Amino acid sequence: MNASTDLKDSLTAPPSAALSMPVQNGAEIVLRVLQEQQVEVIFGYPGGAVLPIYDALFKQNAIRHVLVRHEQAAVHAAEGYARSTGRVGVVLVTSGPGATNAVTGLLDALMDSVPLVCLTGQVPTHMIGNDAFQEADTTGITRPVTKHNYLVKRPGDLARTLHEAFYVARSGRPGPVVVDLPKDIMVGPSSYTPASEAPHRSYRPVREPAREAVQAAVAAMRRARRPLFYTGGGVINSGSAASEALGRLVRLTGFPCTSTLMGLGAYPTTDPQFLGMLGMHGTYEANLATHGCDVLINLGARFDDRVTGRLDSFSPHSTKIHVDIDASSINKIVRVDIPVVGDAGRAIAMMIEAWEWSDVPVDRDTLAAWWRQIDGWRAIDSLAYKQDPSPSAVIKPQHAIRRLHALARETGRDTFVTTEVGQHQMWAATHFQYDRPNRWMTSGGLGTMGYGLPAAVGVQVAHPDALVIDIAGEASTLMNIQELGTIAQYRLPVKLFILNNRYMGMVRQWQELLHGSRYSESYSASLPDFVKLADAFQATGMRATSLGELDDVIRRMLAHDGPVVADICVDETENCYPMIPSGAAHNEMILGPEQSDRAARITDEGLMLI
Amino acid sequence: MQEDPQISAVIAVLVENESGVLARVIGLFSGRGYNIESLTVAPVEDGGNKSRINIVTSGTPMVIEQIKALLYRLVPVHRVSDLTQIGPHVAREMALIKVVGTGEPRTEALRLAEAFRARAVDSTTGSFVFELTGASEKIETFIDLMRPLGLVEVSRTGIAAIARGPKTI
Questions:
Q1: What pLDDT does residue A408 have?
Q2: Between the CA of residue A147 and those of A430, A478, B72, B105, what are the distances in Å?
Q3: Structurally, what CATH architecture does the domain formed by B7-86 represent?
Q4: Where are the domains of chain B?
Q5: Fewer CB in 10 Å around end: N or C, chain B?
């Protein structure tokens, strides 16, 4: 090790720290910072470069460690933990492959604004750049996939850097932060410094919205004839008070409300003022309301391409208000009229206040007419599907989710849902109901297959008594199926609810609609027997192959006090409708198979979009 | 996206002088497909703890706004200032220009250098290295004039820029 440098640095450390405490090594300092940051659990996987930290973990009891089976899963588990609690999730992985395996999870967290601190091991400082065993340029590789990252080169910087990492991860627009920790810094003596109360030298996120901006927004809202709230994950990230305030604002104004995938649960999805999710697989009423509104109030969403569809005809007649804590989200994709930079929860609270004080008259009659139009769209029932009621019938995936929701609700338990990515994810978003924030964990921006099972691990660790269900597809879940091992080790009663259609369903759907039904490599051949797989991982496996078996399997799954893998064999050909084909506008939706020829009319330009 | 005209912008960024900060700035441009026409960086303040980056870039007004917001979002960035927008500014760069030749072209090169107030910082019987400071257009004009007179190599610093008047970044 690089003992000489370490000694020099420890001599230059503040004398008070050196006197008051026995000399601690870097690894012990890491754990001390985590304790001060009130970390209760770390998701990680050991390796050579982080052995000193694992040794320090072994010698203490304040912080739990959950051993995952793959570093990507450690990050998703920390995401599940963070999103279901509102706290910072913590990951610990080794150098080289440990760090590179974490990259997908880090980008997932960046795109969905999830606060994480990921500690990566690194080879000793004097070996950096030598192509040492398990060396990777971790700060270089993770720079574009993190909010910020650090390489700690001097023991004196360790504690301060770690405290700063937590601050950066959770403040402003939350995101993942990597701290790369060379092994010599972990082994050598280090000094502790408490978290600084002083503001950061350069990073000062704006939390408080400008009053004039909020007043301009509220003035536009009061004059609106066809208003619409479009809410996103920013409301959930702001904390539960923001979701409560959103409920008050929506009821106070009487406006309709739609939500992005990330924002589900901020406003109760069962409420009559909720129009369902908008976007590519959103409801007819949500998308037509977005298209037809005259004032669009974006609260903590970012005009993602899955939401806007064709940009030049996105909500063409509306005055657009955009509340975002990230100034770079404003005017990034859609030009807005009234930008409000700041925390969504604060902005909503200020909107309520301004609304109540405002003397601009509200035209209740035109609002009522707007609602009548929306109710007309709603009557089309765009989420409808045809389930043959006979007990031997093939199960429709939408029906399986509706039954899962109904029977889960009967248990009265606090229920958390994670998903993988694909058709099942869209069905879980639209056919399950979310009445509270932080109960819905899905990979939105990055669309990471294999997210749901490890995320469920993190959620269940955070909420040991809650009902945690991963609504999965058979293809996605195989990408991180090894986490059944973690679930077994910690006896986590996670329910893996697989909608098994033997296809990468969303790929198959696009191939059917856009590529002449040429199902290139999208069939899930040689699937494992999921019931036997459950058995191999000490979980309980069950299977439903026809409608008659569905309720019984769900009931047994919910009643079982332990991990369950439920293999729900569903209709292999079912497609996810409604759908806005790529390159189309919100008023050009495909409502069901009878209109699927609309997709064939898609332009080459549309085909190039993802 | 709207078919807006491309504009050029000179952006000054005051950053914490820490390792990787330049890579963050450059990565922001390359990762999102923005242009960098010129970039200079050097420590300027706070005993070398803060560096100033001057960037010349181009894009639609919406893209320029994006670039500024994204720069400001970086954790080690203290201040971002769009010099093209806040008022008049001075932008200068320095170039070292090597010209090889003898006889009449050599004399002509020297004469032109004098007219441009370029200094010969290195001379041999067969070559000159001229140092020239000024606006980028002036440097380009000089380079164009040297081309037929034996121009063989150019090294330019990229621009350093600052607002006119008492205003600071």
A1: 98
A2: 31, 29, 13, 56
A3: 2-Layer Sandwich (3.30)
A4: 7-86, 90-161
A5: N
Among the options A28, A71, A79, A135, which is catalytic?
Answer: A71
**What are the CA-CA distances from residue A476 to residues A251, A314, A422, A470, A507 (Å)?**
39, 31, 8, 11, 12
Model confidence at A53: pLDDT above 80: yes
Task: For residue A506, indicate whether it is catalytic.
Answer: yes
Pairwise CA distance, residues A290 & A277, whole Å? 11
CB contacts < 8 A, A to B, total 44
- Asked if residue B93 lies in contact with residue B115, where contact means CB atoms within 8 angstroms, the answer is no
CA distances from A463 to A224, A441, A468, A512, B105 (A): 42, 14, 9, 41, 83
The pLDDT mean for chain A works out to 94
Tell me the angle at which helices A344-357 and A211-223 cross, rounded to the nearest 10 degrees.
60
pLDDT of A592 reads 87
| Greatest distance between any 2 Cα atoms in chain A | 79
- DSSP class per residue in B9-20: EEEEEEEE--TT
d(CA A26, CA A30): 6
| Torsion region of B40: left, alpha or beta (phi above 0 gives left; psi -120 to 50 gives alpha) | beta
Give me A214's structure tokens.
Answer: 């909020």
Report d(CA A507, CA A523) in Å as an integer. Answer: 9
Give the residue-averaged pLDDT of A544-554. 98
Q: Which two tokens stand for residue A427?
A: 């069905």
Instruction: Enumerate the residues of chain A whose CB falls inside 8 A of the CB of residue B61.
Output: none
Q: Identify which of A531, A432, A486, A559 has the alpha carbon closest to the alpha carbon of residue A80.
A: A486
**Tell me, what DSSP letter sits at residue A283?**
-
A420 CB neighbour count, 10 Å cutoff: 31
Q: What is the pLDDT of residues B28-68, one digit of tens each?
A: 999 999 999 999 999 998 888 999 999 999 999 999 999 99
- Which band of pLDDT confidence, cut at 50, 70 and 90, is reported for residue A11? very low
Q: How far apart (Å, rounded) are the C-alpha atoms in residues A219 and A337? A: 13
Q: How far apart are CA A415 and CA A463, in angstroms?
A: 10
Partner A, chain B 74-103, Cβ-Cβ below 8 Å = 74-78
A72-83 residue pLDDT tens = 999 999 999 999
Task: To the nearest 10°, report the CA torsion of A327, A118, A34, A114.
Answer: 40
Q: Are A142 and A149 a contacting pair, CB within 8 Å? A: yes
Helix (H) or strand (E) holding B143: helix B136-146
Sign of CA dihedral A530, A531, A534, A539: positive
ipTM for this prediction: 0.91
Same fold, B7-86 and B90-161: yes
Instruction: Closest CB to A327: pick one of B1, B31, B72.
Output: B72
A2 — pLDDT class (breaks 50, 70, 90):
very low
Written as six digits, the tokens of A208 are 């408080």
Burial of B164 (0-12, 13-18, 19+ CB in 10 A): exposed
pLDDT band at A22 (very low <50, low <70, confident <90, very high): confident
Residue A139 touches partner B, C-beta closer than 8 Å: yes
CATH 3.30.420.100 fits B90-161, yes or no: no
